[in-house]
Amino acid sequence: MASPLSNVTGLDAVFRYLDKDGDGKISAAELTLCMRTIGEELSLEDAEAFVALVDGDGDGLLGFEEFVKVVEVEGEEERERGLRAAFEMYESEGEGCITPRSLKRTLSRLGTSRCIHECTAMICRFDLDGDGVLSFEEFRRMMMMV
C-alpha cells in the first residue's frame, strides 16, 4: 500500500527507481549507482556522507519520508533562488530594496505602464514596516501570497 505522503508528492516512482533492491530504503551504494546512470559521478564516501546528513532515524539509509524531505529542501532552495533573481530584477537601483521608481522602471520594461503613484500604492500593500520600499522579506511574502 502506498504511503499517504507518496500520494501527495508523486515521488514514489522516483523513490522505487532509486531503491534498486526493493527494501524500501535507499543506501549510499544505490544512490551512487543511480547517479552514475544519469551521468553524474558521486563517490561512495560522498554518498555515505550525504545519507548520514539527512538520515533522520540513524539507520544509515534513506526511507521514503527522508527522501521526500530532501527533495522538498531542494525545491525550497530552488524557489528561494528564483525569488532572489526576481527581486534583483525589480531592485535595479542597487539599494537592496524595491522602490516605487525601480518598480515603475521594471514594469515599463515588461510592457506595463504605471505612474509613480500607482507603484507607490502597490508597494504600500505589502510594505510591512512602513518604510515605503519592499525588502526581500516583504517581496518574498508578497510572492507567496500570489
TrEMBL record:
GO terms for cellular component: organelle. InterPro entries: EF-hand-dom_pair, EF_Hand_1_Ca_BS, EF_hand_dom, EF_hand_pair_protein_CML-like. One of its GO terms (molecular function) is calcium ion binding. Keywords: Calcium, Metal-binding, Repeat. It comes from the Eukaryota. Gene3D superfamilies: EF-hand (1.10.238.10). Residues 6-41, 42-77, 114-146 form the EF-hand domain. SMART domains: EFh. Pfam families: EF-hand_7 (PF13499). This is EF-hand domain-containing protein.
